[in-house]
C-alpha cells in the first residue's frame, strides 16, 4: 500500500545542545496561538524528537519531512551554526525549497543585515552557517528570542514570547501578525460569550440548578479575567513594538494594557512608554501612519509647525485628515491654523485660512512674542495674522504675482518685533533664480521688491536683534546685510566657508550657521558674527529637518523619523522623540526650552527639557556620590578643622538638607550614622560605642558601650519609628537600644541587618555556615511599644551579600558579589534572581514605595543608567540612561549612588554632584502618560483587543 503523503506547515531546525526547551516552546506556541478552543491545532509543525516515528534511516526521514514542509524555521545560534545536522538541513532547503519561506528565530549570538551588499553582514553575524551566504534575494524575516531564552519564559502569557510566536505564525497562516492576534483574542472572546450563554440558560433553571448556575458564573468571571489578562498582554506587546517608532501609540496601548489587567507585562509597557516619551510635553495631534495623499508629482500631505522665540505660542496646521482624499484645490472646505498657548497649556482661537499650496513646503512663521503669524497660502500669497485678535491684517503678493514656482516654496523671516517681513522665492521665469521681497508690515508697503539674488539657490535669511536683515549665499560664503529703514546694503564674505546648495541652516538671530554639505565633506558649525568655524563633525546620513535655536549650545535635528538634540560640538545630547514617518518640520523657542516637530503622516508633538521619568534636583552644596553613607541614609563631608558636616539626602524637591556638624573626623571604616526623622539628633556607632549628638550645636547628648573596642561595626544602624530606639548589628547579635537610657531592650539573632525607608521594617541575616546550616533571614516589624516583632518564618538564602528590605516588609533584596539581585518574598520564601544590571558598580538597590519594583544603578559617567526590575519576577522593566558627565579622571570608576526618595522614587547622586530624581512606581507612570494623551484607542483597535470584556478608558477627567 503506497504511503499517504501530506504537508507540514513548518519544520523547526535547532541545536540539540542548547535550544531543546526553546524549540519545544516554539512548536507548542505555534500550534496553540489563535487555535479555536474546541479544535485541534490549525498548523502542523515538525520537530524531530516529537514528530518522527522509530526509523532506521533517521537522516532520510528528516529530509523527507523537509520536502513536505511549507516553511523552514531556523532557531539560530552559534551552536546551531556549527551543527552538522542543522547545516545539512539548511543546505537541503537552499537547494530544493523557496528561500522566501525561510524564517529565523535568534536564540543566541548576533545577526545583522547589510543593505548595500544585500546580504548578511558577516563581520557581525555569528549565528548563521556559511552556507547561507548570498542565499536570500532580500532581507529575510527574523525575530529575536535572546532575552526569552535567557529568562526561560516560554509562555504565551509573556508578551515578548507571544509577540515572537505571532510574528512567525503569521506567514504560516497567510495572515498579518495583527490578524493572528485578533484571531486569538476572538477565540477567547468566543469562549467568554459561550460561558455567558451558559449563565443565561442556567439562570432560567435557577430554582433547580442554583449550584450549577453559581459554578457557571464563577467560570464566566474566570474566563473574563483570563480574557482581560490575555488582552493586557497583547496590548503590552503592541506598546513595546510601537515604543521605538510611535511613542504616542505606545502610550495609548500601555495605558489600556494596564487598565485591562495589571501584569508584569503591562508594567514593562508603561515603563518603556515613559522612556519613549521621556521629553514629550504633549502629543498635539495623532498621525495617519501612512502617506498616500498626493496633489501632484512632488506633493505629499503637509504638516507644519512654528514656535515663537519667547516660547509662548505654538502654531501648526496639517492637511492630512480623513477628508483629505476628497479635497481638490482650491479647497472646498475651510482650513484652519491651530494655536496653543504654551505658558498656560491651553488652545487659542484657530485662524481660518484659504489653505496652503501644493508643493508641500509652505512656510509658517511666528514673531518673537507670538503676536504675529505669517503663512503661505495656496493662491501664492502670504497671509499676515494678528494672533491675539485672531484677525487677518495683510495679504502680500510678490512683484510678479508669484512667491514660488510649482515645486519650490517661499522662505520667510520675521524681525523680532514683527515690524519687517522678508521672503525669498523662485521666479516663474526660467533662469532668473531666486528673488527677495521685504515688507514693512505696519503699512504693508514693500521695502525691497523682486531683487534678484542670482541663479544660485539656497539663500538663508534672518533678522538680528536690531532688525537688520542678513542674507547668506552658502555657495560663496557671502553675507549681505540690509538695514530696512535706510534701504542700504553692506556685504562681507566668510573666508573658508563653502557649501553646496540647500545644505545650510542659519539661526533665527543670524549669528550661527550649520552646513551639512561643505566642500570638505564634513558638517561645519560657524559663528557668523566673528566669521570663524566653531565645530566640525562627520556628516549624518540624511537630515530631514534641521534648526538652530538662539541658544548657542543647542542644535535640533531630525534624521528621518527621529528627533534629537545636539550640543555646540555637534555631539548628540539626547533623543527627544520618534515618529512612525519622517519628520518634515521642526520649530523651537529661542532658548530651546520648547521644540515642536511634525511628521509627514500628520503627527505633531511638543517636546520640553523636563524628563517624564524624573527631574534634576537642586544640590547647592554639591554633595557627591562618594559622600553618601553606604546605607544611603545620610551625607557626610570632612571639614578642614577635623569636624564632619551631616546632611539628610532624601528630599526629591529641595535636595540635601544640612543638619549641622559634629566635632569628629571619620578617617576609618567601622562607623555608621543615623538621624531622627526631624534631624535634631544623630546617632553614631564607633569601636563598640553608641553616642548621640545634637548636630545643630555639635554637642554630645549621651554615650553607651555595647561591644568590644576592636569590633568593626558594619553599615547597620538606624533609628526606629519612635526616634528613641536604635537598632544595630554588634558582634553576634542584633541589638535594640533605648538611647535615652543606653539600655539594651531586645537582642535578636543575626549578624547583618537592613532597615526599610520608613524605619518600621527590619531584616536580619544569620550566618549558619559555622554550624553547617544554611544562611537565613528573618523579617521584623516595629510595634511602637519599644520592641520589634517577627513577621513570617525565616527564609533560607544561598548567597551572602548586602541586604535591603521593602517598606511593608513583604520583600527582601540581597545583592551578591557579582551584583546580581535576589528578591525574596517573605510570605512564601520564593526567590527570584535578576540577570544583574550591565556593568553594576554598586551593591545597593532600592525598593519602590509600593514594593513592586527594584532599582539598581550601573555604569559610570555618560554610560550610567538606572535599571528597574519587577520585584515579583525579576524581569527587567526599563533601562533609563542618566546622561551624567564623564568622570574628570578617566581611570576612576566612581558609581552614582541611589537613595530612596521621601516622596517615592529614587534620588541618584552622581560623582560630580549632579542630583537626579527618577520615578520607579507604576501609578506615576500612568499619570505621566495620561498627561500626554487621553489614551483613547481608535474603535477598530478597541474592538480588536477589548470588545466584550468591559474595559473603560484609562485616563478620566
Description:
It holds the Pfam family TIR_2. InterPro entries: Quino_amine_DH_bsu, TIR_dom, Toll_tir_struct_dom_sf, WD40/YVTN_repeat-like_dom_sf, WD40_repeat_dom_sf, WD40_rpt. It comes from Streptomyces spororaveus. This is TIR domain-containing protein. Keywords: Membrane, Repeat, Transmembrane, Transmembrane helix, WD repeat. This protein is an alpha+beta fold. Among the domains are: 168 residues, Rossmann fold; 111 residues, no CATH class; 324 residues, YVTN repeat-like/Quinoprotein amine dehydrogenase (Methylamine Dehydrogenase, Chain H), CATH 2.130.10.10. 19% of the residues lie in helices and 34% in strands. The chain is built from 13 helices and 62 strands. A 5-stranded parallel beta sheet has the order 2-1-3-4-7, sandwiched between helices. A hairpin with an 8-residue loop joins strand 49 and strand 50. Helix 8 packs antiparallel against helix 9 and helix 10 packs antiparallel against helix 11. The N terminus is likely disordered.
